[in-house]
Amino acid sequence: MSNAQPSRFTSSNKTTHERLTTTTVGLVALSDFRKRRAEVLEQQEKEARDALAATNVAPVPDRSNTATPTQASDHSEAEKQVKKNKKPRTRALLSFGDDEGAEDDGDVNPSATRADKKKKKNKAVTEPEPEPEQGGNKKPAGKVINASVAVVPRALTKAALRREAAERDALRKEFLLLQAAVKATEIAIPFVFYDGTNIPGGIVRVKKGDFVWVFLDKSRKVGADLGVGGEKTANVRREWARVGVDDLMLVRGTIIIPHHYEFYFFIMNKTLGPGNQRLFDYSAEAPPVKETERSPDPLSTPSKSGGNSLADLNALEGVNDDPTYTKVVDRRWYERNKHIYPASVWQEFDPEKDYQHEIRRDTGGNTFFFAK
């Protein structure tokens, strides 16, 4: 029974392990075993190349660097390679369109021409997207970039930046012209000289852009012309000539206005004093220019008599105000009597102070019972 013939169902091709088993019986040295194994691997690769040459297939890669497959797996791989080489390849058409329906497997319909694809693309662009129905939760077909941003800012090009700069410059020039027109507007301020009693002083014409010291200088000239204080001294004009602007104070109500402030500051800010009354209640708008006041020639100069260039004093704003609300006081008199009412309640203007909620007190800290 030991000499029985091998079964016909047994494969005639032996694996590398079987060949090594039959050829390395009785070996003792490791070098002999390695030599026999190299010969078996070389013979097996030679048989595989011969088999592939018979079927006209490209040779398989060298198995010395990879694991040695079985003979059956070699035949199956060879058959797969032959079938793959015999598969007809379809030539892909060149297209420059953004066809969303094109697949990546390389199967392209040969009958589709470039004109058809271009027609489909134009149709997709011209056809509007269907609007979602009211009450529905349909989302737009296309992707919305930065959907969380309510307003997408436009790109600022050099032309847009120049245009915005020109608009800002035009607005700045317009504001400066309006400001200059307001500052050039004349107003009338009635006043009195105060030295414990109200001495009529008259009306001073100033511009809204003038400083307080300009008003005091004009009031000093009015006092010299009227001879205010003549009952106390014989030479009134000489006494007024000795009085400088720094020796005079402007008291508006109970607020001492510093010399360096412009009337324009109080007019534009609508500054309120005690009693919820504006310190200088004048308009912040420029008066309209009358046709008779416009000069046809901008280089022409008005006549010496003034003509239409000087407005009538009675037509100026503020000419009918209470003169006792504006007092011109000698600073030396104030220093001697600032502890006596009403000079004791006068205070210098502070732009950061709220005079509406102020509790009026005397020099001793006692609250006035008539204070609001």
Give a written overview of the molecule:
By secondary structure, the chain is α/β, with parallel strands linked by helices. It has nine helices and eight strands. It has a six-stranded mixed sheet. A hairpin with a 3-residue loop joins strand 5 (272-273) and strand 6 (277-278). Residues 1-14, 63-73, 298-308 have a biased composition (Polar residues).
Oligomer: single chain
Unreliable stretches covering 5 or more consecutive residues = 6-11, 64-72, 98-108, 295-310
Q: Judging from the principal axes of the Cα atoms, what is the shape?
A: rod-shaped
**How many beta-strand runs?**
8
Mean pLDDT: 74
Biased composition (Acidic residues): 97-107
Biased composition (Polar residues): 1-14, 63-73, 298-308
InterPro entries: FAM50A/XAP5_C, XAP5
Domain FAM50A/XAP5 C-terminal: 185-359
List keywords for this structure.
single chain; 372 residues; alpha/beta; six-stranded mixed sheet; 9 helices; FAM50A/XAP5 C-terminal domain-containing protein; XAP5
Sum this structure up briefly.
Residues 41-50 have a biased composition (Basic and acidic residues). 33% of the residues lie in helices and 10% in strands.
Helices and strands in order:
Layout: H1 16-23, H2 30-54, H3 71-86, H4 114-126, H5 158-183, E1 186-194, E2 198-207, H6 212-226, H7 236-242, E3 248-252, E4 255-257, H8 263-269, E5 272-273, E6 277-278, E7 326-330, H9 331-337, E8 347-348
Parallel strand pairs: 1-7, 4-8
Antiparallel strand pairs: 1-2, 3-4, 3-7, 5-6
Helix pairs in contact: 1-2, 6-7
